[in-house]
Amino acid sequence: MPPVSPFLRTAAAYAWRLLVVGVAVYAVFSLLGRFHEIGVALFLGLVVTALLSPPARVLARFLPRPAAVAVTLVGSAVLLLGVLALVGEAVAGESTTLVREFREGLVSIETWLERPPFRLDPGALTGLQTKIGEYFSTHRSTLLSTALSGAGHVVQVLTVLALAVFSSVFFLHGGGRQWAWFCAQLPERARARTDLAGRAAWRTFTGYTHGIVLVAATNAVLVGVALYFLGVPLALPLALLEFFAAFVPLVGSPVALAVAAVVALAARGPVVAGVVVALIVVIGQIEGHLLHPLVMSWAVRLHPLVVAVSVIAGAIAAGVVGAVVAVPLVSVAWSVRCALRTRADGQGDGPAAEARAEPGPDG
Predict the structure, then answer these.
(1) How many domains does the structure of the chain reveal?
(2) Would residue 162 count as lying in a domain?
(3) Among residues 43, 362, 356, 357, which one has the least CA distance to residue 175?
(4) Residue 193 lies inside a defined structural domain of this protein
(5) In whole angstroms, what is the distance from residue 46 CA to residue 89 CA?
(6) Are 260 and 223 in contact (CB under 8 A)?
(7) Under a CB-based contact definition with an 8 Å cutoff, are residues 306 and 330 in contact?
(8) More exposed terminus of the chain, fewer Cβ within 10 Å: N or C?
(9) What is the pLDDT of residues 16-53, one digit of tens each?
């Protein structure tokens, strides 16, 4: 029997290891898929902890730790409800005007499409409206059952939010102690590496969370001010939509601004809609070349291609939730890898030293 070449022996050794890793990754993701509500709730709890740990730490200097956590959570909830109430009031106050403007805008759009260069048949849009009305009349029972099934999803969402808030209370109150207890349960030779990896992961996750919130708030302010001066209705709700959409890197912001462009087209005509489309390009350039490099480079060092692939892969794997969590997960994994490699190289500075000095959620 001829001897096996060293190249083939090496390739076979790597191949079976890759197969084992692939099976392990598939098993982990299958398990997470069955309990994805718990995973999402814990992720949201970590986001809340990353956002509220600085004010909770400041309040803990003057109040007992439980009181500081309670004041921080209640204050943030009141602030969030106040913003939502303000948005609801803005929508209710402009509803009558908005309906009238949309009807007038649809008529102007139909007239615009009937002219050159489109030369659309005048009866095409009227026929489309009739078909839409007939569809809703024919499928009324199906739509009603879909709406009732959506009520079950609302209950799931509320359950996830409740679990997220519940977990954030414990993370804020004693996250560092919980992590120390977890590391103490591991074998002694694994404790130092696990503690280092966890602190590096928390530092990166906190930095990403603070950075993406700052980027989203900046985008929302720019969009809100621009839409207000352009006279586009619902400027405040559209700015809030831009804020939440910015949590999906590279994709969310253009989608939210496309919705704003449709509103501008129906309410203010094609010229203002064109300005909003130009706004999409300008804000995209500001976000990609100014905000992300300045705000997030110190916490997340990922190439834009890696970010794009991560978002698309997350969206394919888990929809919108996957697109939101993909980049922070990849960033955390890369941070842990860099910290462990630095420790293995025996260097005293860099990400490992920064991670070692980084306090936990409870300070």
Answers:
(1) 1
(2) yes
(3) 362
(4) yes
(5) 31
(6) yes
(7) yes
(8) N
(9) 888 887 787 677 667 766 777 888 888 889 999 999 98
With the CA atoms of 96, 98, 104 and 107 taken in that order, what torsion angle do they form, in degrees rounded to the nearest 10? -120
| pLDDT mean over 140-153 | 60
Give the containing element (helix H, strand E) for 40: helix 36-59
- Which pLDDT band holds residue 351 (cuts at 50, 70, 90)? very low
Is residue 127 included in any domain, yes or no? yes
Six-digit token string for 325: 């969590």
Structure confidence at residue 140 (pLDDT): 60
Would you say the C-alpha torsion 63, 65, 70, 76 has a positive or negative sign? positive
Quote the CA–CA distance of 306 and 322 in Å, as a whole number: 15
Q: Assess if residue 2 is contained within a domain.
A: no
DSSP H helical ranges for 185-297: 188-230, 235-245, 252-268, 270-286
Tokens of 346: 């025996």
Question: What is the per-residue pLDDT across 206-251, written as a single tens digit (0 to 9) for each?
Answer: 888 888 888 888 888 888 888 888 888 778 888 888 888 888 777 7
- Entry pTM: 0.73
Distance CA 331, CA 292 (A): 14
Kindly report the number of other CB atoms within 10 A of residue 263's CB atom: 24
* CA–CA gap between residue 244 and residue 228 (Å, rounded): 19
Q: Is 79 helix (H, G, I), strand (E, B) or coil?
A: helix
Q: What pLDDT is recorded for position 60?
A: 87
Residues 337, 196: Cα–Cα separation, whole Å: 11
State which residues form the domain around 269: 35-357
The residue count of the chain comes to 363
